[in-house]
Design brief:
The protein contains three helices and four strands, in the order H-E-E-H-E-H-E. The strands form two sheets. It has a two-stranded antiparallel sheet with strand order 1-3. The protein has one domain: Trna Endonuclease, Chain: A, domain 1 (3-Layer(aba) Sandwich). By secondary structure, the chain is of the alpha+beta class.
Length: about 120
């Protein structure tokens, strides 16, 4: 499994448990860097700790703050807005240059809203 596929799988597994996603922003707004194919992509994470780790590791994101978004708002408002603005979404990317930078996730709308483990109190 590629690193990008592993990130995508973790995102799909964790978002239903968390009930929210996280992004980052600074005074200028949310970042939307260019991915390896030249498309603009906004990053989202399934855990705030992942977003915080990228803020600490990527010089361009120093000074950004982590922003929580309820998953229903993300699915109902954010994703359609990104589509309307011709932006992609990147999920659980580590921001590492050696991994090709952010990779747009074309299957993000397939995030399930229910997870059998979530009712069992499953945690990482």
């Amino acid at each position: 499994m590629s690193l990008s596929a592993a990130h995508s799988a973790a995102f799909r597994r964790e978002v239903p448990r968390e009930g929210r996603v996280w992004t980052i922003r600074d005074a200028a707004g949310h970042p939307a860097p260019t991915d390896a194919t030249g498309r603009r992509a906004m990053p989202f994470w399934s855990k705030p700790s992942r977003a915080e780790r990228v803020i600490g590791a990527v010089a361009a994101y120093r000074g950004f703050a982590v922003v929580e978004i309820p998953v229903h708002d993300w699915l109902d408002s954010w994703l359609p807005g990104l589509d309307q603005d011709d932006l992609e979404e990147v999920t659980d990317d580590d921001g590492a240059e050696e991994n090709g930078g952010p990779q747009a996730n074309d299957q993000v709308n397939e995030v399930p809203l229910t997870d059998p483990d979530a009712t069992n109190g499953g945690t990482d």
